[in-house]
Give the backbone structure.
Amino acid sequence: MTAPTSPFDQAIARAAALIGTADGLIVTAGAGMGVDSGLPDFRGNAGFWRAYPALAEAGIDFTRIANPAAFVRAPRRAWGFYGHRLALYRDTAPHAGFAVLRALGAAMPGGAFVVTSNVDGQFQKAGFAPDRVLEIHGSIHHLQCLTPCDNAVWPADGVVPQIDARRCEWTGADLPACPQCGGLARPNILMFDDWQWHSAPSDAQRRRFQAWRQTVEAPVVIELGAGIDLPAIRHIGEALDAPLIRINTRHPDLPRGQGVSIAAGARDALTALASALGLAI
């Protein structure tokens, strides 16, 4: 077998060695994980406004539209944004890297657990068990009351987005409503300046993750596409007291001695790992 020569190949070989000694896989994922599936990551106003030109024209950045106050100021615009995202996430197929992660976890005694800041539900769509996913910011596939009138959280399955994408506006006759009070509903997502997010579903997921973590003795962490602007996922991975494989196109740097840094996109790096480990995907 020829020894790897490029920095990328050397990093893949080191990462494969770490994976080979692990008894459980912790996947920590940020917005960059979905980029290879064609999803926007909203990193910086330029990228965000390319995806939503109507908001660019109005000078509305991500922090202002991803905000409970947006549903009060302009509910049809807020639901135009979130309804478009809901439809996009429903229609998007997870890229091949998700299958690699599933195969890696299946080969370990403790299996895999996902910790993600993404609200898109792509891991569940890719076949990960819902009880092995922690969504630290909630999910667009669940709703809550905007007011809120109570602490209920319910599936968004009945919401059929009717959107004018050019104007970023909900065009349906009725906006999503709370089944209890009839008032406006909102996604069960932790937004900016959000003091009324119902965290109970995420809290239950977190307890399941903590219980699972006690069942594995030598896990490995694969972090994918976690940015530095909102670094919660990076901090979680660094604090897990386990070898960390950081896969990131822009910011692959790691604390000294903590693991392996791979400067690549999620799909490319995971495909290379599958090849190095002899996995048939």
Summary: The radius of gyration is 20 Å. The first helix runs from residue 7 to 20. The mean pLDDT is 95. The longest strand covers residues 138-145.
